[in-house]
Amino acid sequence: MEDLRGAAHDRAVLAEARVVLARRLGVPPGEALQHLIWLARDLDIEMAEAASLLVKDGGGGPVGAVVAGRRAPRTEEVPAKRQAVLSDAEDVLRRVTAEDTGGDAELLVRVPDDPAATAVLEGALDSAAHLVPVRGPDGNVADFLFAELNGVARDMFGRGREELTGLRLLRTDPGAVLSGLFDDYVRVLDTGTRLERSSIQYSTAQRGLSRSSRMSVRCVRVPTGVCVTWRYHLAEDRIARRLERVERLALIGFGEWDLATGEADWTPQMLANYGLSPDEVPPMPHDLPKVVADDDLPLVEEAVQTMFSRREPVEAEHRVIGHDGTPRHLWVFAEPVLGESGLPVSINIVSQDITRRRGVERALAETRRQMLRQQARTAQERRVAVTLRRAILPDEDELEQLPGMCTSIRSMAAESTARIGGDWFATKAFQDGRAMFAIGDAAGHGLPAAAAMARTRNGLLGLTCTGERPGRLVGWLNELIGAMDPPATGTAIVAHYDPARHLLEWTCAGHPPPILVRDGRAAPLEVVRDPMLGAMPGWEYTTITTGLKSGDMLFLYTDGLVERRDADLDERIVRLTHILRDSSSRPERVLDEVLARMEHDRAADDTTLFALYME
């Protein structure tokens, strides 16, 4: 149970430390966990210890970190806009679908050869189509027919020559009406004026799907109708969107200065990095120091001078003071582009906003300093705990000789000073020939456990002078521990032995049961499991009476001997019982054999063994 409590405690401390560090650094908990791993690695300590140091140091607040302040972007085409395109397109389709198309095939047959149209289609590198007009009863153009398309022609839905030839334009592409291109085609047909649009936003729909893209379109009149060439800028738009997203996500901006014309071309993120609005004119290289923090002016001026005098690329970090007075840290790369004369003709510049990174670094540095201070305080507490334990517990060769029995004891502190606990033992010989012996374990580790151990042991020795039975003594001891500040708990076995009557009176307060070895057999004593000390105020503890005889050996121990995270406690006690059954009858030898065969973990907890041989 102690190991389970320890594992649960470690997980809870780790979770709390992650939240504390996330708040300090202004980062998500997942990123805070990564920083906690790096801090533990940097300080050469275990993760659990690093988390404990953070939690002990207190939650505090942010210590200089900067929150990212960015939100996830919305989709570029909102559902309302897409629905509007579909609705308008459906209106167009309902209108044109009602028109009679029975004569379309005959109309195409009557179209004479058009060498001009053929030349346009064969010479076009982009999608191209030959459109012939379909006139209504009033003589006006009601639609166009696809008379021919070139081999590379594709519409927004990927349809080409085979799918579109012979179909009407508005039925296959209602976006021509929505964008006004249909009217433009009619105007070209009527007037002969060439149409050329280099980049328009185009949307169309078909079968419940809408598509949008920038496109370039040209239209010329030919003897039998018009020829249209077009290009969708899907790939260019995709690349532009990706670059924009890269700049936004990484806070990277790009700029170019044309030294010949004095013009500057900066991306939106570049302007944002320097705190400029989209309509502001970017500063030229020699004006750049004007937007830089005063303390960083020499560095920027030196970088600009290096570019022009030595004609070499430079990189530097500087701060920009925002309109709210908050500094922004930028890492800047710049390079001159040289002309044929070897002189700079333009400057390329890239900046990255690293304000958040610098904030996290400052916060991590301060957190590391705080952890080092806490680590020093914790180490001091551990040294005090070790010293207190040595001062309170007597050495084995200083044990008081108890009447009617031969005793041997081993009390070993945990090898890891962080796991030093509250194991204790006590012995006392009474004037009337009786003997008192006790073993216990104050809950916890470190200085609090050592302090609780000292007060528990000394309190018991003081109460023993009353001569009362063990149950009464443990009841008083329970009240004493319950009134401690800070509160404490622990386990204990307190026993009186009367050698004249070979009678053992004892009480168990939540402690592992003693094991009696008699005539080559070993078994744990029947125990009344009263609650541990400090858990139940006012509890009346039971005094158990056990008859002993000469040659019996009583074995007491703390949980450090039998508890392991990978084994059941009852199974470990059974194993200990079997070892004692086959062990020597001499107390000193018994302790050596138990320690050798139980394979207990010296690093995990204190371990105390107590063997008493009845003479």
UniProtKB/TrEMBL annotation:
Domain PAC: residue ranges: 314-366
Classification via PROSITE patterns: ANTAR, PAC
Keywords: Hydrolase
Residue span(s) of domain ANTAR: 1-55
Single Gene Ontology MF annotation: phosphatase activity
Protein name per Swiss-Prot or TrEMBL: Serine phosphatase RsbU (Regulator of sigma subunit)
Species name: Actinomadura coerulea
